[in-house]
Sequence to fold (342 residues):
Amino acid sequence: MKAFVLAAGASTRLRPLTMDIPKPMIPILGKPALYYTFLNLWKNGFTVACVNTYYRPDIITNFFQNNDINIKLEFLHEKKILGTAGAIKNKEEFFEDTFVVMSGDGLTDINLKKAVEFHKKKKSLATIVLKKINLRFEYGIAITNKDGEIKSFVEKPLLGDVFNDEVNTGIYVFEPEIFKFIPKNKFFDFSMDLFPFLMKKKIKIYGYVMDEYWTDIGNIVEYKKGVFDALDGKLKIIPIIKNRENKYISSNAKIDKSVKICGPCFVGNNVVIGKNAVIEPYSVISDNVTMGNNVSVEKSIIWENSEFGDNVKITNTVVGSDTLISSNVTLFDSIVMEYSNK
Fold:
């Protein structure tokens, strides 16, 4: 089987963090989110995938051309955004059999084999993977019957419209015949265009409810949740060995003996931490970060190559890559970064 991975989003909801990088490349414990999508595909038996790109495609292609992920990748650069369904239309000849579509900015360890088995058992043209979640209204809601057939959609509903808790994860299983219903060189979206059209034509669409972990890291709240869930071990796909204190610390990190570190936390490669620093729970310090003396970090995510002066205190903050934070600075509930139009 082959897969198509959607990685062309404009990333507006995560700005300013995504001013310089595509959303699927934001870091989750030392690797881009997109890396775990490919890792999960490989663990489910996929060996070939096509990836569409749009914003800063060089960052995606350069990273994965130099990283062994055991999957053969084909890249499709879109000069014009064509929507989720419009994108795969351009690779129609790539898919000869049942195939899977995944979002590059979803974080999941879904068992895709079970989803495909459900799809084939139902003899479905299109199957949408659903996830039961607590009521949050930034996702499209799907209404299914007892057989799993989708009867209606409510796309990003208002509070008064909510009467179900199964949301569209952006993971789909299709038969190649689906391309007959997708126009070429036209903006066409799965949820807004394709699925309503199929239902209007009385073509059955089924919903497969997954049991495994899933979250959409498309905004800062969900991004933090995904990272902290990964620290808690909820995302099984992340291959990190932790010690009994629930700490992930690289062997080449240089940490002064006076530093206090509390799990769960992550400390990446070549990190340097000065004297009397305190690393509180749910702190993520990415590769090549340097910290001065008396630094305090709590429930914060620090991207690679950043530098802290002395007496810096950050809480519930995301620090972008290559950011310099001067001495004696206190940050709470913030996003801080140095932006450069590279």
